[in-house]
Design brief:
Elements (H helix, E strand, L loop, with lengths): L1 H7 L17 H14 L69 E4 L12 E4 L6 H18 E6 L1 H5 L3 H14 L2 E5 L2 E7 H34 E6 L5 E3 L2 H8 L7 E3 L5 E5 L4 E4 L5 E8 L19 E5 L5 H11 L6 E9 H17 L8 E8 L1 H10 L17 E4 L2 H4 L13 E9 L3 E3 L9 E3 L2 E5 L2 E3 L7 E4 L5 E9 L1
Parallel strand pairs: 17-20
Antiparallel strand pairs: 1-2, 3-5, 4-5, 6-7, 6-11, 8-9, 9-10, 10-11, 12-13, 13-22, 14-16, 15-21, 16-22, 18-19, 20-21
């Protein structure tokens, strides 16, 4: 048939009005249509028939051309072939045959074209005009075509809620798939109504299901990563000695032991090779080695990154720092900036209860001062003795013991900006060997005011609001060197320094 059509296109016909074909399989129709379009590039396959020219077409036989009015359509129309002999054909039934044109009482049947436009285009329809020898045969043909359409074509609605969970790249892939598969889509309040060949619609459904499953898997994994991140934090130590958290995905993998000797990417995109037996990671490019550590948090307390892990029933842990560590060097340099005495030992104080209370007070002051100074946390010094140091590490600073050394700026706990001040024997009493003790402390100074010897609590910031008080007192408002706090949880003993 296609070869004949190809041959016809080379014949100089006066006009070619229509070629009507009835194919009972949609895939055959689609393939035929594609090849026919390439052969007859200037003739649209489903164009409406143009009006007949006043001049009759050239005769195909010596007989005169058929009339243009009630006569049957020209031979190229879907009418039955002309008789093979001059004699009239025998009737197919006792009744005389009806006209070969479509019966007026039977309207055309519309079916959607398999070659769908873009998803944003309106649905294009194909119109099939059925002719036959009787009304019954036409009705039977219509029924069969409808049944065939129902088996070959189907429609599926994808709800807005289903589509909203998909990633943008997934939606883009679905639209491209619909275009390439010849599927029609209509949008209705966020829903997609997709129509086309059943096999293509089913393939699209499978693709949507796979995307939804992948999305649910990602969400489940994300929830698991978040849950583990709240309970356990894996950290690595930079060359500057600072500890950093691993990204959530790498944290999850290490905790689940997914990467016993595997790899992970840090937040800078650097790839690291992990060795959990040695608790270290190696930069794949520079071969730099860094230490790893695991911090298991409590339900109401997250360990600071620079702390070591602690046993479940351990409340206080005093950790001697290695003189070669960056942490030791940082604390030592800060001390030596204002004091010429020699550091003998630095110990990190890890007290869960004290740190939890300190961080609660930190949040309180930050919320109260969010429009001004915030918590104004400072690293300050507090001279002490061995006996008092043990008490402070266990129970924290206690303002009730104020007055032992000074009360010039209020009856609270005193902290100095300079280590040299706290190193004075009055505040840091030497033992028999001449060694002294001092805390490097975190102090929440907040908004401060000038102190005085009778101050028990800071005064109100505004006389109209007596409950809104200053957070601390100082010796000098312009250049404070001494800070006094009146709430025990406003200071935390971070490091204990032994010096001489």
């Amino acid at each position: 048939m296609l070869s004949g059509l190809n041959e016809v296109t080379s014949i100089p016909l006066f006009s070619l009005v229509q070629v009507r074909l009835v194919l009972d399989k949609i895939d055959v129709f689609s393939a035929f249509k594609e090849r026919a379009t390439r052969m007859v590039s200037n003739a649209p396959i489903r164009a409406s028939p143009p009006p007949l020219s006043p001049a009759p077409p050239p005769p195909l036989s010596p007989a005169p051309p058929p009339p243009l009015s009630p006569a049957p359509p020209p031979p190229l129309s879907p009418a039955p072939p002309p008789p093979l002999s001059p004699a009239s054909p025998p009737p197919l039934s006792p009744a005389p045959p009806p006209p070969l044109s479509p019966a007026p009482a039977l309207p055309p049947v519309a079916f959607m074209d398999a070659a769908a436009p873009s998803p944003s285009s309106p649905i294009e329809k194909s119109v099939f005009k059925i002719t036959g020898m009787s009304k019954d045969s036409i009705a039977e043909a219509k029924t069969k075509m409808k049944d065939l359409y129902q088996t070959q074509y189907s429609s599926k609605t994808f709800k807005k809620d289903q589509l909203n969970v998909l990633m943008p790249r997934d939606l883009s892939t679905l639209k491209k798939e619909m275009e390439s598969s010849g599927l029609q889509v209509q949008y209705s309040e966020g829903d997609w109504v997709v129509t086309g060949q059943t096999v293509k619609v089913n393939q699209l459904m499978d693709l949507v299901q796979s995307f939804m499953y992948a999305t649910l898997t990602r969400e489940k994994r994300s929830r698991e990563e978040e849950e583990i991140y709240r309970k356990v934090t894996w950290c690595f130590q930079r060359l500057n000695g600072k500890w950093e958290k691993l990204p959530k995905e790498a944290n999850y993998q290490l905790e689940k032991r997914i990467t016993e000797t595997g790899k992970y990417l840090d937040e800078q995109g650097i790839e690291w090779v992990v060795n959990l037996q040695k608790m270290e990671a190696t930069d794949k490019l520079s071969t730099e080695n860094v230490a790893l550590k695991r911090l298991k948090h409590l339900p109401d307390f997250n360990f600071p990154l620079y702390w070591d892990n602690m046993a479940p029933d351990e409340i206080l842990k005093v950790v001697p720092l290695l003189p070669s560590s960056e942490e030791y060097e940082e604390v030592k340099l800060d001390f030596e900036a204002t004091c010429s005495k020699a550091i003998l030992k630095i110990e990190r104080v890890q007290n869960i209860h004290l740190r939890r209370s300190y961080e609660a007070q930190l949040k309180h002051i930050m919320d109260k001062n969010k429009q001004t100074e915030g918590a104004n946390e400072k690293l300050l010094y507090h001279g002490t003795t061995q006996e008092n140091a043990t008490s402070i590490m266990n129970t924290g600073f206690n303002r009730r013991f104020s007055g032992q050394n000074a009360t010039s700026f209020g009856k609270g706990t005193y902290f100095a900006l300079n280590a040299n001040y706290s190193a004075h024997p009055t505040y840091s009493k030497p033992d028999d060997n001449g060694t002294q003790l001092m805390f490097s402390s975190r102090v929440l100074t907040g908004l401060y005011t000038l102190g005085n010897k009778d101050m028990i609590v800071p005064p109100p910031r505004n006389v109209k609001n007596p409950h809104e008080r200053f957070d601390s007192a100082v010796d000098n408002l312009d250049r404070p060197n001494m800070f006094v706090v009146f709430h025990d949880n406003q200071a935390y003993p971070d490091y204990l320094l032994t010096f001489k």
